[in-house]
Amino acid sequence: MGRMKKLLDQSLRPLVIYAFMVLVISIPVYFVIIDWIWENELDKHHYAIREKLEKRLTHLSMPDTAVDNMIAVLDNVQPGFSFSEAPAPRPDSLYTIIRFDDFMQEREQFRCLTTDIRLNNKLYRVLIETNMEEIDETILAIAAVTIFFIMLLLAGFIYLNQKTALRIWQPFYDTLSGLRGFRLETGKAVPLPASDVTEFADLNASLDSLMQGSLASYRQQKEFTENASHELQTPLAIVKSRLDMLLQSQSLDGGQMRIVEQVYQAINRVSRINKNLLLLARIEHAQFEEKERIALDETIAGIAAQFTDRFENNALHYTESIEPFAVEANAVLTEILLTNLLVNAVRYTPAGGDIRVRLGAGVLTVSNTGSAALLAENLFRRFAQASGEHAGSGLGLAIAREICERSGWHIGYDFHGGMHHFIIRF
Fold it and tell me: What SS3 class is residue 47?
């Protein structure tokens, strides 16, 4: 799973991206619009100059020589005007050009109008041009102002996201905090905060209904498991007692005796499974809440002493390296956990193999000789066999994992050096 992101940041990111997109798009749009406005106004200005120039020169009623002299003066003195005689009229021409300006001594952009005027029945071609250098400064100024206000807008987004949005979403965080304290084992639904927001009120109502339904199903399952396990104890005990009587009977022949022994073993297996299921149910239903300080090194030594006969019968070499270490846990569950690990080690260790127990730095390792790694996906699953060599109830390691999870410990498995290693980190 990648790095988690907060919901409020998720809502802010599209706003920031959108603002930057608007900023990037707005600058060329500003340029195009302002350039178009500028050129349009210059074109109107040029036509106004043309009409004013033609009217004034015509109104003066000067002879041709005087007109020619005045045109020569305007052509040489007035920047932006150029006159020439036109042999025939041509359509007006509007265009923009970039050229070297002799007056400014640098390359400049000009908006030009080429048109015809008639003075004293004589046709002249007139070029009117205006330097457009101011447009660049205008674009830069508008871009700077736009960037400033976009940054101001983003700062406002962030502020509103941290203040206003956080206040709006506070009921959601209160509900989330309440749900973190919900546990089925307690048998009670957690109170959810009231909200005057319709969506949050509907959410809380739905969650409360879901918790009540889960608690009801949990209670029914708990009652069924306990009742079923308890009810099975009596008939199983009766069957075992009757089988004991049959095994002691002298009237059975060899074949019948073998059948009774097989049935007896099956009944023992069913009885163990029933007890383990009942234990799992009690663990899941939090019936082992009492905790005390346990000297783990002493507990391990005491349990290992109970396995001495089994070690000798199976020719197993048991060694331990235990440092003093104490934990806050339930004594019954801790003893069951350690017992199951040792039982598992004895079951999967071949005759003449080694079993090693190490405890140090808050880590317990139970190792035993093995030929191949166990099936990791089946190790801690109920009724799943991790190896085909020995068939157990399939509940021992499931119980061990459940105890570790309830106690806040971590259990893992590894195989190397020809040995199985079950590791618990307290």
Answer: helix
Q: What does the alpha-carbon distance between residue 422 and residue 373 come to, in Å, rounded to a whole number? A: 12
Taking 3-state DSSP, the helix, strand and coil percentages for the chain, each rounded to the nearest 5, stand at: 60, 20, 25
209-238 pLDDT per residue, tens = 888 888 888 777 777 766 766 667 777 777
pLDDT tens digit string along 17-33? 877 788 778 778 877 88
377 in helix, strand or coil? helix
| Cα 246 from chain centre | 64
Nearest of 46, 127, 123, 50 to residue 89 by alpha carbon: 123
Q: What is the mean pLDDT of the chain?
A: 78
Structural domains in the chain plus CATH codes: 7-137 (3.30.450), 198-284 (1.10.287.130), 292-425 (3.30.565.10)
Q: Which two tokens stand for residue 274?
A: 């029933």
> How far apart are alpha carbons 122 and 83 in whole angstroms?
12
Distance from C-alpha of 386 to C-alpha of 413, rounded to nearest angstrom: 12
CA distance 292 to 286: 16
pLDDT above 50: residue 83: yes
Give the model's pLDDT for residue 1.
Answer: 45
- Measured at the alpha carbon of residue 187, what is the angle toward residues 183 and 191, in degrees to the nearest 5? 70
Query: DSSP per residue over 193-237, as a string?
Result: PP-SSHHHHHHHHHHHHHHHHHHHHHHHHHHHHHHHHHHHHHHHH
Three-state SS string across 175-194, please?
HHHHHHCCCHHHCCCCCCCC
Alpha-carbon gap, residue 403 to 390, rounded angstroms: 23
CB 190 within 8 A of CB 180: no
**Could you give phi then psi for residue 178, rounded to 5 degrees?**
-65, -40
pLDDT band (50, 70, 90) for residue 352: confident
Chain-centre distance for alpha carbon 183: 24
Nearest in space to 107 (alpha carbons), one of 133, 125, 138: 133
pLDDT in tens, 361-407: 888 999 988 888 777 777 777 665 555 555 555 677 888 888 888 88
Contact call for residues 57 and 120 (beta carbons, < 8 A)? no
Q: Most confidently modeled of 196-200, 277-281, 296-300?
A: 296-300
Q: How far apart are CA 403 and CA 51, in angstroms?
A: 101
